[in-house]
Amino acid sequence: MGFEYTFPAIRGIQAGREFYVSMCPLRLIPKIFIFDEDELSPELRAQRILNKGRLPALSKYILDNPNDYIFSALTASVDGDMTFESHSLDGVGFRAGQLRIPMEARFLINDGQHRRAAIELALRENPDLGEETIAVVFFHDAGLARSQQMFADLNRHAVRPARSIGVLYDHRDASSQVVREMINRSSIFRGYVEMEKSNLSARSRMMFTLSALYFGTQALVQGLEIEPEEATDLAQSYWEAIDRTLPEWGQVRSRELSATEMRRDFIHSHGIALHALGRIGNSLFRESTSPSKWKKQLAPLKKVNWARANPHWEGRAIVGGRVSKSHQNVTLTVNYLRNHLGLSLSPEEQRVEDAYLRGEA
C-alpha cells in the first residue's frame, strides 16, 4: 500500500458513471491539480490555453474579499484508482463516505483552471487562505477523448450574463452603486431603464439600458476623488442638465413620442452617445469651478443634430448604417461634441480625429 489522499465525499451517478463530490483545502489545489497546456498542441489537450491576463483580477478578488468571495466547484478527472468507502450499507449513508486516491494518481482539471491558478496566486500573498475549502467534483479519467468531451459539454451551454444584470447585482463596484441610486432618484430615468437586458427589443418602451447608463456614468465620474453619495448627486445633476438639451427624452416621458421611435430615429439614448456625453462631462467637471459654469457650457448641445439621418454621424457613431460602440467610434463621437461645445481635443483624440479626416478610421 502506498501513500494516498483521503477526501470526505458524496457519491453520485451521472450517465451511468460514478462521480464524487468533496471539499478540498485550498492549500492542496495547486499541489495536486495540474493543467496540461505545456508543450501540448490543442488536439492533445483537454482544456483551452490558460489566459494569464485574467489571473491578477481573479486573485485580487479573493484577497480583497476574504469574508465574502465565492468560487464554484472545480471539475477534475483522476487518472488512477479511486476507492470509495461508504459510512453505511444503505440509505443516505451509502452515498456518503471517504474517497481514497493514490498520491501517484494524476488529477486533471476539466473545468476551473483559471480558478485553480488564481488560488495559487492568492495563497502566495495570504497563506492563511490555505485552510479554506472549495468544492471539487471527481470523475474517473476515461482517456483524452472523454476529457475533451467533458470540457466541451461543461462549456457548451455556458452563457455570460448580460452586462446590465451584472451591474444591477454588483454591490462592490462603486460605479454600479452610483448608477442604481441615481436611477431610483431621478424622474428622467425611473421607469425608463431596462435593468436586466443589455439590448432593447424594437418594441421596448424603455429608453436606455442599465449597462449603457453605467458606462456613461462611469466615464462621467472617472478619476474624480469624491465619495459615492457626492458622485450620485453630481451624476444626477449632470444627466438632468443633459435632458434639458434633448427634447426627445422629455417627449417620450410625456408620451408625445414613443421610445421605439426615438431609438429608431435618434442616437442620443444609445450607449455610444451616453458614453461620449459622460466623457464630455468629466472634462467639464475638471475644468469648471461651479455647476452653473459647466451647465452653461452644455447649452450648445441643443443645436446638435442627433438624428441618425445626419450624415456627420456616418463613420463616427454609425458604421454601415448601424450604431457602433467601438472605442474609436466613441472617441470620434466625443470629438464631434467637443467641436460643438468649443472644447479642445486631447492629443489622443486629435490623433484619432486626424486619422478619420484622412479616411484611415
Mean pLDDT: 89
Major beta sheet, specifics? Answer: 8 strands, mixed
Number of domains: 2
What class would the helix/strand composition place it in? alpha/beta
Poorly predicted ranges: none
How many DSSP E strands? Answer: 12
Question: What brief labels describe this structure?
Answer:
single chain; two-stranded parallel sheet; 42% helix; eight-stranded mixed beta sheet
Layout of secondary structure:
Layout: E1 4-14, E2 17-25, H1 29-32, E3 33-34, H2 55-64, E4 74-79, E5 83-86, E6 96-102, E7 106-111, H3 113-125, E8 133-140, H4 144-156, H5 163-169, H6 174-185, E9 193-194, E10 208-209, H7 210-221, H8 228-243, H9 247-253, H10 259-265, H11 271-287, H12 291-297, E11 318-319, E12 322-323, H13 327-341, H14 347-357
Parallel strand pairs: 3-7, 4-8, 9-10
Antiparallel strand pairs: 1-2, 1-6, 2-8, 4-7, 5-6, 11-12
Helix pairs in contact: 2-3, 5-7, 6-7, 6-8, 7-11, 11-13, 13-14
Describe this structure in words.
The protein is of the alpha/beta class and about 350 residues long. It has two domains: about 5-155, no CATH class; about 165-355, no CATH class. The protein has 14 helices and twelve strands. The strands form three sheets. Strands 3-7-4-8-2-1-6-5 form an eight-stranded mixed sheet. A two-stranded parallel sheet has the order 9-10. Strands 11-12 form a two-stranded antiparallel sheet. The model has no long low-confidence stretch (mean pLDDT about 90).
